[in-house]
Amino acid sequence: MAIHPEEDKSSNTAFIDIEYTSEHKRGQSGIVEYDYLVNATGPKLNFEATEGLGPGKNTVSVCKCDHAAHAWEELGKSIEKMKNGEK
Hints:
The chain has 87 residues and is α+β, with helices and mostly antiparallel strands. The protein is 22% helix and 15% strand. It has a three-stranded antiparallel beta sheet, with no helix packed on it. The model has no long low-confidence stretch (mean pLDDT 83).
């Protein structure tokens, strides 16, 4: 999987590269466009599992109290941008 937060020649919006694991499509690849992406790394904090993830990087977390407080601040900023018509 590869995360592409900006559009490119493959897509007019943010997208991820995927590889199917279902029996009838196993090994095939594709893209999934997204407006908002949640990358859940599992029950243990493992931000290193995906490059660029973690507090102070390209993401917010709600796994710890201080992370959740930061996420709340970032959500407020995003809401204000959306109210102003920004992406």
